[in-house]
Amino acid sequence: MAEVKIRHAVPADVPEIVSLIRALAEYEKAAPGALSLTEELLRDSLFGPHAAVEALIAECSGQMAGYALFFHNFSSWRGKRGLFLEDIFVRPELRGRGIGKALFAELLRIARERGCSRMEWLVLDWNQTAIDFYRSLGAEPLNEWTTFRLNLG
After folding, report:
1. What is the dihedral of CA 70, 132, 129, 126, to 10 degrees?
2. pTM for the model
3. Is 119 helix (H, G, I), strand (E, B) or coil?
4. Among 130, 26, 14, 29, which residue's Cα sits nearest to residue 64?
5. pLDDT at position 78, please?
6. For residues 29 and 11, what is the distance between their CA atoms, to the nearest angstrom?
7. DSSP string, 40-102
8. How far from the centroid of its chain's Cα atoms is residue 31's Cα?
9. Which CB contacts under 8 angstroms, 24+ apart, belong to 10-19?
10. What whole-number distance in Å separates Cα of residue 8 and Cα of residue 21?
């Protein structure tokens, strides 16, 4: 099995990350036209003067095999920041090789290093494969919470 390398994204990765985000949107059965992300928007969000998100890249056999996008949130109850995982995606043909686990392990390492009190993310209720993966890592669903969204544009 090829070695998996996890690294922080660099600006040159943006076009391929956008391509993988499109693949994630397709996998998640997003409505046509729902994705308005551009390379420019992602580049600014990752590397601009007011960067809002960070990205990890998983490489396997010299190719980008997956990515994780994350940012910090805050727990008023704990008085500490947390790490929110916006996306984690591994190319379908490369799944089952430990790439997702390697990305997740690096996210946990970063969260601990930065003093985060927890790590959170969302998963679609029909994505049993992802749910099983997260449970295998010791994560527990927060079934008593309902997610709300107010789109602003």
Report:
1. -90
2. 0.93
3. strand
4. 14
5. 94
6. 28
7. HHHHHHHHSTT---EEEEEEETTEEEEEEEEEEEEETTTTEEEEEEEEEEE-GGGTTSSHHHH
8. 20
9. 11/43, 11/46, 11/47, 13/55, 13/57, 13/64, 14/39, 14/42, 14/43, 14/46, 15/39, 16/64, 17/42, 17/55, 17/57, 17/64, 17/67, 18/42
10. 17
Residue 6 β-bridge partners: 58
- Contact, 119 vs 108, CB < 8 A? yes
Q: If one looks up domain 4-136 in CATH, what number appears? A: 3.40.630.30
Token look-up 């959170």 returns: 120
> Does residue 14 surpass a pLDDT of 80?
yes
- Given a contact cutoff of 8 angstroms between Cβ atoms, the answer to whether 126 and 90 are in contact is no
**Catalytic sites, residue numbers:** 134
CA–CA distance from 13 to each of 92, 97, 127 (Å)? 19, 22, 27
Query: How distant, in Å, are the alpha carbons of 3, 4, 55, 133, 144 from that of 61?
Result: 7, 8, 20, 23, 42
Instruction: Give residue-wise pLDDT tens across range 90-143.
Output: 999 999 999 999 999 999 999 999 999 999 999 999 999 999 999 999 999 999
**Domains in the chain: boundaries:** 4-136
Which DSSP state fits 133? H
